[in-house]
Structure formats: structure tokens, C-alpha cells
Design a protein that fits this description.
Number of domains: 1
Strand content: 25-35%
Shape: globular
CATH superfamily: L-amino peptidase D-ALA esterase/amidase
Order of helices and strands: HEEEHEEHEHEEEEEHEHEEH
Length: about 375
Amino acid sequence: MKKLILILCLVPVAGVADNTAPRARDLGIPFDGTPGALNAITDVASVTVGHETIIEDFPDGRAARTGVTAILPRGKASNDEPVFGAWFSLNGNGEMTGTTWVEESGFLEGPVMITNTHSVGTVHQATIQWRIDQGAADSSGFWWSLPVVAETWDGYLNDINGFHVKAEHAQAALDAATGGPLAEGNVGGGTGMICHEFKCGIGTASRIAKTSEGDYTVGVLVQANYGLREQLRVAGVPVGQHLREDKVWTEDVAPDAETGSIIIVVATDAPLLPHQLKRLARRAALGLARIGSVAGNGSGDIFIAFSTANEGANQADPGVEVRVLANENIGPMFAATVEATEEAIVNALVAGRNMTGNRGHVVKAIDHSQLIDVLRKHNRLVE
């Protein structure tokens, strides 16, 4: 563990996230809607997020560029207080465990975990152990848990078959979960991820949805790892058709269709029931489409949405009352989800940093100055 800590101290050269780096709005990129104070999923009160980033190089040329991200709907209280939830698969070449029970029960119990494809099992078991260690089992010692663990594939930059994610990494991400501003880009589960052939990873954004029943917050967090360069659009501009240098895939190995994956987590404090949250989760697909994704055959585009309202709704108490936002007033929630998803993905792109990884593979981040130039030429920059 001391070796890992030493390497993490040197991570700027390896391309780990920089919390002081500009976000998409700082570059003048225009977005619709009004963000929350942090423009992050943590604008939804009680939501906390933790990252554990794994950067390590080995003498034989292998490299670990991976990690774990944890999203807790009610912070540490998530173990005891489930939230209404729902999920949606736009294209299912991917994994998100626990979704059959979310679908059946209408509740998300515990955290949402995101990691790489081959580490789902490790993170799943570690999450159960973490919940037990929190003292949530009953007096008999019995505990029953079906964690939600999602993945995207980081095997180009990461030695994915080296199984570098261990139980302690998942538990460290859970223990580190806090509110406030969040690291983006090459961090946590997004450490080794690529989207539109640029270095990418974790991104987040939020929106204030104004309904006739009051104002509510929608927050989105993505782990983006999908898309071809030519598909990329930013603020409606076909940026990927202009920024064609440093593509990951050379012509002789380029896939003929979009592959990769994206996990999208949507949080809100609006009082929505599971079937309404399913509708919200579906709208994340429209935000993804704004960036240019076509959800190709090889892509795993899987989304989950939850509401932090209606605390105690899962209790066997006949006195519990549930509030519901009327369907007639849900339109602003849809718009907020689309807008926050779009910006979260662009934030993940902008936060990406050049990375050299497994077997010397290199993925370049999007060049901010070149991106600004393209948007300015199309009159899509906020000067």
C-alpha cells in the first residue's frame, strides 16, 4: 500500500484528475438551463460521492489505470434508508447488477458503485462487506444485499485482466464519499476511460427544475467510455469532424461502429415514484444523443435514477405518507435531466488529461484551445 501511495503522489504526469482545472462552462461552452450551486450531483441534498483511483506501473510494461466510484443517495444513511429508484438500458452490452430488484421493488437500497468491467464481482462482494461492517445487519447477524454495481471497459489503458481493483479500494471509495465539489475526469472508476477517442472519465452537472409545485434539483454523474471521434458534438457543433488529430484508433484497427459504454446516474430531490423515475432515466438518453452517441450495438448505455424525497417510504408503517409530483408537472424534470446529462459528459471530456497506460498505450485529452477555436468559428462560444 505504501508503494501505491508514493505513485499517487506523482500522478500529475500519469494524467490523474486536477481539481483546479477548468470545467466546460469556464471555457465558454454554452448550455441550456440553470445549474445548481456546485453544478454537480451533490447539489441534491444528502447525495455523497467517493472516488478511489489506482495508478501503478509494473516492470513488464503492464499498468493499472483504474478505480472505483461510489454514489450514496443518502450519504452513510443509505444503508438504512432506501430511495425510490428505477433503471433503463438504452443498449445492454454492459452490466449493472441489482437492477431486477430495483425493478421489482421500486427501491434502490444502498450505494451505486461504478468500476471497470472485470472488477464488478470484487466490488459487489466488497460493497456487501462494507454494509455489514457498518452494523446494518439484524440481531441474528443476518444481512441480505443486492448491490448496484455498474461498469465500463478500461482495457486499453488499464491492465484489466490483472484484477487490480481489490475489496479495500471499493470500501475506500465508500468511506471517502462526501458532498461538495467533485473531482472529474481521470478519477475513480473513470481513471482509464475514453470517449470519442479522447481521454474522458467521470463528469457531473446539475439543473434547477422549476415546476408549478416548486423548484427541484436534478443532478447527474456519468462514467463516459463510448463513441467515435466523428460523432462528437459539443453545443451542437460537430467538433469531432474538426479535431481529428491524436485519434486512438488507427485506420487499420478502427471499429466500424460505435463501441464502449456509459453509465449515467440521475439523482433528484423531487418526490417521484419509481415509474416516474423510469421516465427520468430514459431522458438521459436524449442528453447522450446531444453529444453524438448512437448507442451502437457494442455499447453498454445503462442508466439509473433515484429520488431522495419520501424518506421512510419503505417502512412497514401504515402512517407513512408519500408525496408525488403530478405527471402534468414533470416536464421541467425531463428537460433538467437532458440538460444536466449533456453537460456532465462535456465536463468529463474537458476534465480528461493525457494518459499513458498499459503497454505504453497513449490517449490524449481534448485540446481546450482547439475546442474553443472550433466553437468560436461556429459562433457557439460565450465570450
